[in-house]
């Protein structure tokens, strides 16, 4: 069925995203954020379907495992940046790089120098890393 095919494509996408972020090795959150954007730009079809839950079998075990691997790969960078796990900061980091990638793919942001700009955008994660909730600028 169509949903099954799209679910398999999404699971493959999350696995490839996890591999892309893990490939930076000891690279921190900025490197992982740039890898996230690079993946989105290199695999726009996968990237798009990965975040369309109404089209997928959301209860699929392979999809759940692949999503978890991708989250874990991003979380490594968060833990390095925040000196430990911080799921709230992880969601903020994910939102920033996902939003930027989506803006480029939709044409709202010029794709020219997209990876250079992605490094700048992801760099803001490092700047805000020392500021937790309630801390002022």
Q: Could you explain the architecture of this structure?
A:
Helices cover 72% and strands 0% of the residues. It has 137 residues and is mainly α. It has one domain: Orthogonal Bundle (Tetracycline Repressor, domain 2). Helix 1 packs antiparallel against helix 2, helix 1 crosses helix 3 and helix 5 runs antiparallel to helix 6. The longest helix is centred in the middle third of the chain and has 22 residues. It is globular and about 45 Å long.
Keywords:
137 residues, mainly alpha, Tetracycline Repressor, domain 2, 6 helices, globular, disordered C terminus
CATH architecture: Orthogonal Bundle
User: Roughly what fraction of the amino acids lie in strands?
Assistant: under 5%
CATH topology: Tetracycline Repressor, domain 2
Low-confidence stretches: 131-137
- Helical stretch tally: 6
β-strand number: 0
Based on CA atoms alone, the radius of gyration comes out at 15 Å
DSSP helix fraction = over 70%
Mean pLDDT: 86
Largest sheet: none
- How many domains? The number is 1
Short description:
By secondary structure, the protein is an all-alpha fold. The chain contains 6 helices and no strands.
Give the secondary structure arrangement, pairings included:
Elements lengths: L1 H21 L6 H14 L1 H7 L10 H22 L4 H20 L7 H15 L9
Helix pairs in contact: 1-2, 1-3, 1-4, 2-3, 2-4, 2-5, 2-6, 4-5, 5-6
């Amino acid at each position: 069925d169509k949903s099954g095919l799209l679910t398999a494509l999404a699971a493959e996408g999350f696995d490839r995203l996890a591999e892309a972020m893990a490939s930076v090795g000891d690279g921190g959150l900025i490197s992982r954020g740039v890898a996230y954007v690079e993946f989105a730009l290199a695999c726009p079809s996968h990237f798009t379907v990965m975040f369309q839950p109404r089209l997928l079998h959301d209860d699929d075990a392979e999809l759940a495992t692949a999503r978890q691997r991708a989250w874990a790969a991003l979380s490594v960078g968060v833990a390095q940046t925040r000196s430990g796990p911080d799921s709230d900061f992880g969601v903020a980091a994910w939102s920033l790089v996902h939003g930027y990638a989506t803006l480029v793919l939709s044409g709202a942001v010029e794709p020219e120098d997209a990876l250079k700009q992605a490094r700048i955008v992801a760099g803001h994660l490092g700047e805000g890393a020392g500021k937790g909730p309630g801390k002022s600028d």
